Amino acid sequence: MNISKEQIDNLNAVVKVAITKEDYEDKVNEILKNYRKQANIPGFRKGQVPMGLIKKQYGKAVLVDEVNKLLQDNLNKFLTEEKLDVLGNPLPKQQEDFNWDNESFDFEFELGLAPDFDVNLKTKKAITQYKIVADQKMIDEQVERIQKQYGKIVSKEEASKTDEVTGTFTNEEKEISKTTTVEIDKLKSKKAKDAFVGKKVGDVVTLNTKGLFEEDYMLASATGLSNEEVKDLKIDLTFTIEEINEREPAELNQELFDKLFGENNVTSEEEMKNKIKEDSEKQFAQQADQKLLNDVTEKLIEETKFELPTEFLKKWIQLSGEKEISAEEAAKEYEKSEQGLRYQLIEGKLIKDNDLQVQFDELKEFAKGFIKSQMAQYGHLDPQEEELENIATRVLGNQDEVKRLSEQLMSQKLLDLYKEKANLKEKEISYEKFVKEVYG
Question: Which long-range contacts (CB under 8 A, 24 or more apart) does 364-370 make?
């Protein structure tokens, strides 16, 4: 067997594979002999069927199967030995004069090659690294929410702006009939707030959906409609009041602190606020990190210039699916996937150049940390090492979980690399301002 590579240009090559009779003959004959031993053909005893008949009946199929096996095994071996960084998979070139009745066969495969390029983390323009802080206003609002949540509900006869009302929203045209609880001071519309003041159980309040709540999802939840249905919805709703309640705030005492944070972990209002600030900023850090990953990714794609074997990749997309698609459909698919492919190549280059490998021991420790944080959400704050070890071992026995956790760990390694080497500028900002600046 002879395999050679013809370089077309920096991004395209053709591999030629020549297979002769000597490459496959022994294996084909061995298989056909085994077929002869097992063949049951009327008129012949088992094992006594003439070899000529076996070859006539099975020879072509065995030949094709064995040649294809030889072809794939040796092609893959060649690509590995030559250290060819191939995009997609080799595409066989069509040969009009190909004939399986010949004794020797020539095959050609088109290759799309990964480009050679460098990645510069010192981008032209500095990328903002957000440091999100929990300001005093946010902490005070969180304390107020906690006091309300754990406070005592007191029934009232007449509603005021600080009360909550339970009742049923109705609208015949949209077939709305949904019982819900509304905090009057959380309504966006001043007119709606005023409409509830002084009302009693049994009273009916008419409200318009436009501008009623701060967010569409709140209107969807209150009416039972979908997010799509409430978008730009402008109709009148009637709300029949069934209950009026006032929440007396819970006292900021040791009983509440223990309920929230575990026994004696927090012993004063000041410690409670510090704990809220610390926990909030841990969550904010995750959002800021995700934003940084996204921004660095976009900037690297924008500034890292290299060519791709575009025509090869379009052809590969066209031919490699379960069913062949048109050239136009393949071009559209390529357009949609090009940015992702570019970042995969950039990421692979960063991983290789900075030796960012995921070792099993560190993957296990990463899994333990993930499990510990999950357990903490359910109040299990201090699991034993043996318990974490056993759970981590079970989790890492699942290949899907290994893949998912490995990807998360690699993202963390890349994030650490960006923080160390990328062109960043830190910006301290409140969560409210972060949301407005980033998400509008």
Answer: 364/392, 364/393, 364/396, 366/405, 366/408, 366/409, 366/412, 367/392, 367/395, 367/396, 367/405, 368/392, 370/405, 370/408
Joined tokens for residue 54? 């076996």
Would you give the distance in Å from CA 88 to the centre of its chain?
Answer: 22
The rounded distance, in Å, linking the Cα atoms of 328 and 338 is 15
Please check whether residues 272 and 392 belong to one and the same domain. Answer: yes
The C-alpha angle 404, 112, 81, rounded to 5 degrees, equals 80
Say which amino acid occupies 123.
T
Q: How far apart are CA 213 and CA 189, in angstroms?
A: 7
Closest C-alpha to 8, from 304, 311, 305: 311
pLDDT tens column, 18-77 = 999 999 999 999 999 888 887 777 778 777 788 888 888 889 999 999 999 999 999 999
Residue recorded with tokens 């001043």? 190
Give 286-318 as a DSSP string: HHHHHHHHHHHHHHHHHH------HHHHHHHHH
Type of residue at 393: T
Q: How many domains does the chain have?
A: 3
The residue segments making up the domain with residue 420 are 267-439
Q: What is the pLDDT of residues 274-320, one digit of tens each?
A: 999 999 999 999 999 999 999 999 999 999 999 999 999 999 999 98
